[in-house]
């Protein structure tokens, strides 16, 4: 992700993803949203990863909170809104646009609920919503992995690949997150019953 991000610095308009977005590059709000999203997404990936560190949770709760607030505020007020703006201009037509708009709304929703649950000291619910939020954050990586696999092992036209990964890039992540949460809840119930 770092290598992808630095290609756009300081303000390159003719590299990477922007090569196929030349029809939109003149639209100011899209262009600003793109660069905001690219420049801040790497931080969101890193800050979110810290939220699952048991060391931070047990030994340095203050640092856990700082990274958690930074992650949440970034998604809610910077990266998330930028992603939402970009999703209305997604390649692949209405199918891809719906996928990315839904991804953006769910990302904003899960993150805001995770923040609210933490403020209300409902830490179990906070953790569940943070898992969902971070599963969607990871779509930045999984989308690229799926794109690589499909383009290298299947013969599908590029725009069709984009339509597929628009859903697969985050859809499987959220399914796995829900499976993990469900198993976690089953284990908690089993431990209670044993007590």
Instruction: Tell me how many strands there are.
Output: 0
SSE-based structural type: mainly alpha
Measured by DSSP, the beta-strand proportion falls in: under 5%
The total tally of domains equals 1
**What fraction, in percent, of the residue positions are helical?**
over 70%
* Average pLDDT taken over every residue: 88
SSE order, one letter for each helix or strand: HHHHHHHH
**How many distinct helices?**
8
Distance between the termini: 45 Å
Radius of gyration: 18 Å
Chain-wise SSE layout:
Layout (H helix, E strand, L loop, with lengths): L1 H5 L21 H23 L3 H6 L1 H27 L5 H27 L3 H15 L1 H15 L4 H37 L1
In short:
Helix content is 79%, strand content 0%.
Describe this structure as you would to a colleague.
This protein has about 200 residues and is mainly alpha-helical. The protein has one domain (about 1-195). It has helices spanning about 1-5, 30-50, 55-60, 60-85, 95-120, 125-135, 140-155, 160-195. The longest helix is centred in the last third of the chain and has 37 residues, at about 160-195. The chain is globular and about 60 Å long. The mean pLDDT is about 90.
Keywords:
195 residues; mainly alpha; globular
């Amino acid at each position: 992700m770092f290598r992808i991000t630095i290609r756009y610095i300081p303000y390159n308009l003719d590299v990477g993803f922007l090569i196929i977005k030349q029809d939109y590059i003149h639209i100011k709000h899209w262009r600003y949203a793109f660069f905001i999203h690219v420049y801040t997404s790497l931080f969101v990936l890193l800050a979110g990863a810290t939220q699952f560190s048991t060391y931070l949770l047990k030994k340095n709760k203050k640092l856990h909170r700082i990274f958690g607030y930074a992650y949440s505020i970034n998604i809610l007020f910077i990266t998330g809104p930028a992603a939402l703006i970009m999703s209305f201009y997604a390649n692949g037509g209405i199918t891809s646009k719906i996928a990315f708009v839904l991804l953006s709304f769910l990302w904003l929703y899960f993150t805001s609920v995770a923040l609210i649950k933490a403020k209300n000291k409902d830490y179990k619910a906070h953790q569940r919503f943070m898992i969902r939020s971070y599963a969607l954050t990871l779509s930045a990586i999984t989308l690229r992995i799926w794109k690589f696999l499909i383009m290298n092992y299947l013969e599908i036209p590029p725009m069709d690949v984009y339509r597929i990964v628009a859903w697969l890039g985050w859809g499987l992540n959220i399914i796995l997150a829900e499976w993990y949460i469900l198993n976690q809840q089953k284990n908690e119930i089993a431990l209670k019953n044993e007590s």
